[in-house]
Amino acid sequence: MDLKRLQHLLLLTEELHFSRAAQRANLSQTAFSRSIQTLERELGVRLFDRDTRRVSLTAAGRQIVARARELIAQATCLQFEVDELRGLQAGRLAFGVSQLVEADRLERLIEQLQPAGSEVRLDIEVNHWEALREALLAERIEFFVAYARPLVEDGRFVVHELPAQAASLFCRAQHPLLDGAAITPARLLDYPWSCVRFDASIAQRLCSLLHIDAAQLPVRLTCSDLGLLRRRLLASNELLLTWRQAVAAELASGQVVDLPQAAGLAMPAEALALPCALVRLAGRTLSPLAMRAQQWWLANV
User: Fold this and answer.
1) SS3 label, residue 57
2) DSSP line for 155-211
3) How far is CA 300 from the centre of its chain?
């Protein structure tokens, strides 16, 4: 049985869209469709119902997908064992991170996993924690590092907690709020807010600290692109709710101001901390490369 065709089966199962699945497989839609048709012909069953509007798994398709995942996982484990015999100097590791992860920490991990002369291939997905959770469940990645508080009690996962990231509310240095008058909670509500997507409890904690109603928060933009949010922060009167590391360079240069600090609000360091964790699937043995990456991460918190 051709494992590549089974991988195409799993891609189409995840996307339920031939064009998107073909793109992920780095194939033309025609070639990808031919691969699925060949698999159906070899198995002698129809795996997908498709018409001009949608694609859906058949009952037989659902059963075969479960077996296909097992076969792909077994083939991957075999490759892992071969890689281990080669001294971790070759192989592939796929994992995910959210933008909570500092770039310098990620670069140091890459240097550890790809020393000079190695043939290790890394596939790193940068995404929101919910998307990383789905990638982990689909076994496209072996672990991820991100916000993970909702997963702590979920038996499907093993969650290794990491140090939390301090967060706050920021504005540009020339913002009208810094005109010398008192920065009151009411004045903060006069300007639009933006933020990266994270658990609603973070905003609720801020509201509690500022003694304002969460329903009043003027959040006008949520976005996973930190670069866009930083540009808008520097070029407008928007207030940005995010973790400090995301604007560390702008804070250091004086371009950006921490509003609670400027307002003289006494806030404990953990008040707006965003929890972070390394998450992997329960009941799964990590590949040697993934185990090495996990050990490095936990030792370099």
Assistant:
1) strand
2) TTEEEEEEEEEPEEEEEETT-GGGSSS---HHHHTTS-EEE----HHHHHHHHHHHT
3) 20
pTM tops 0.70, yes or no: no
Give the Å distances, CA to CA, from 271 to 77, 203, 257.
43, 11, 18
Q: What is the pLDDT of residue 294?
A: 93
- 47/25 Cα distance (integer angstroms): 18
Look up residue 86 and give its two tokens: 């080669």
Q: Tell me the two tokens of residue 278.
A: 């390394």
HEC letters along 5-35: HHHHHHHHHHHCCHHHHHHHCCCCHHHHHHH
The per-residue pLDDT for range 135-166, each reduced to its tens digit, is 999 889 999 999 888 899 999 999 999 988 88
Question: Residue 260 pLDDT > 70, yes or no?
Answer: yes
Tokens of 74: 């077994």
Closest C-alpha to 220, from 192, 201, 199, 248: 192
- Domains contained in the chain, CATH given: 1-85 (1.10.10.10), 87-163+275-301 (3.40.190.10), 167-272 (3.40.190.10)
Quick one: which of 128, 130, 274 has its CA closest to 205? 274
| Residue 277: closest CA among 195, 169, 154, 194 | 154
Q: What sign does the CA torsion over 147, 153, 157, 163 have?
A: positive
Q: How far apart are CA 295 and CA 23, in angstroms?
A: 34
